[in-house]
Amino acid sequence: TMANTRLWARAALLGALLGLLQGGRQLGKLAEKKLCADADCSHPISIAVAVQDYIAPDCRFIPIQHGQVVYVFSKLKGRGRLFWGGSVQGDYYGEHPARLGFFPSSVVQESQYLKPGKVEVKTDQWDFSCQ
């Protein structure tokens, strides 16, 4: 029917728009849940220092260089528990906009605990899409 055709056309258009918003890269979820310091995961759990370099395999991850300071905002649970989410501090404050991404917890050592990461939050596709 004509109503079904319009509905499918709208769904296709919405899907295309979401693809554009996500940079066209829909990548798999690393985990279903994460631990954060607050419900929005907007407060860092800790400050860590990179103990080794990490080369990001795709755009869900952030590259890290040995000695860089990393703000940890989330810790994935379940099958993704080896990965944390955060951002690297630039050499100069405000030099680059902070880019959030994931990295293996093994490449950093937490140096300062800011707020307990005890709030369990469900992940969604935006956590793992490339912007």
TrEMBL record:
<protein>
    <submittedName>
        <fullName>MIA SH3 domain containing</fullName>
    </submittedName>
</protein>
<feature type="signal peptide">
    <location>
        <begin position="1"/>
        <end position="23"/>
    </location>
</feature>
<dbReference type="Pfam" id="PF07653">
    <property type="entry name" value="SH3_2"/>
</dbReference>
<keyword id="KW-0728">SH3 domain</keyword>
<keyword id="KW-0732">Signal</keyword>
<dbReference type="InterPro" id="IPR036028">
    <property type="entry name" value="SH3-like_dom_sf"/>
</dbReference>
<comment type="similarity">
    <text>Belongs to the MIA/OTOR family.</text>
</comment>
<dbReference type="GO" id="GO:0005576">
    <property type="term" value="C:extracellular region"/>
</dbReference>
<dbReference type="InterPro" id="IPR043369">
    <property type="entry name" value="MIA"/>
</dbReference>
<feature type="domain" description="SH3">
    <location>
        <begin position="43"/>
        <end position="113"/>
    </location>
</feature>
<keyword id="KW-1015">Disulfide bond</keyword>
<keyword id="KW-0964">Secreted</keyword>
<dbReference type="InterPro" id="IPR001452">
    <property type="entry name" value="SH3_domain"/>
</dbReference>
<dbReference type="GO" id="GO:0030198">
    <property type="term" value="P:extracellular matrix organization"/>
</dbReference>
